[in-house]
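user: can you give me the structure for this one chain? tokens are fine.
assistant: on it. calling the predictor now.
[tool input]
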Amino acid sequence: MKQSKVLLIYTGGTIGMIEDPETGALTAFDFNHLSDQIPELSRINAELKVVSLGEPIDSSDMNPEIWQDIAQNVQDNYDLFDGFVVLHGSDTMAFTASALSFMLQGIKKPVILTGSQLPIGTIRTDGKENLITSIEIAASKDDSNESIIQEVAIYFEYSLYRGNRTSKVSAHAFEAFASPNYFDLAVAGVDIKYNTSAFFKTTLPELSCKFKMDDRVALMKIFPGFSTKVYRKMFDFKNVKAVVIESFGAGNVPNNSAFFEMVKNYITEGGIVINITQCSSGSVSQGKYANSTMLNEIGVISGRDLTTEAAITKIMYLLGNYSDTKEINRLMQVSLVGE
């Protein structure tokens, strides 16, 4: 069988650390010598190439410019490789996966993000399995010689998730991610079991990349007793073009006339407000209860079951690439890439 070609894009994170035997400090290692750390890679039926995006970063420092660099690397190498694996810190991995899914629409090859909870140079690391299986998935073809996975996904601790349906749920467990409102795309055991009915397949004829992201986006988490005065600058359309609200349960907010007036004025000025639930699973059903009916009336968009990561990156993407507010509102309410 012909070897697939897989490009590893290294951004940083725990997975790229090894322990200095003299000092005990964790330092980034040269991923060009990856096989020295993981000799098992030589047994995978894939030709690997590694590129590093400058100095490795802590994923807390991830930003839209680096998302653009990752996406540009995929676009530039799209015809040269069969799949892509992005090595990334776990803390912001779901944000990056969501952003890439919107930036790389029309993709028909896998872009798999992975990382680890323990450095790859430690004895109990989860990084080796995560990396090996991610490469195997990125290299896998079906009987028609097409990539089995044709979307942006996250692989972590034996599960493959849709990237824009995933959130980090644990800071210490190896099962660090979950996709509470969508099925796993695959589960790795003795064999990799693919859930083909859950796959996203683009209807676009070719790769269509739009890399601009507008960072004039704010996030507000509703809590009992919040003061509207505290958030007035957040709802200043001159500086903030969209606000994502994490509301209670099925989309509820307090019956606060000052809050409703502030949001209404902001939307009238041209601002966009998206309502998502702060629950880990479930969906916004705006108008189901009296306290959320007013949100419908003043023009707040229901984000349904969007994750926080997907809601934020989607509106950043739409603001960056579209100018008509009505069109942005419409696109926020339809699925672009299975989000």
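assistant: here you go. The first helix runs from residue 34 to 37. Residues 4-209 form a domain with the Rossmann fold fold (CATH 3.40.50.1170).
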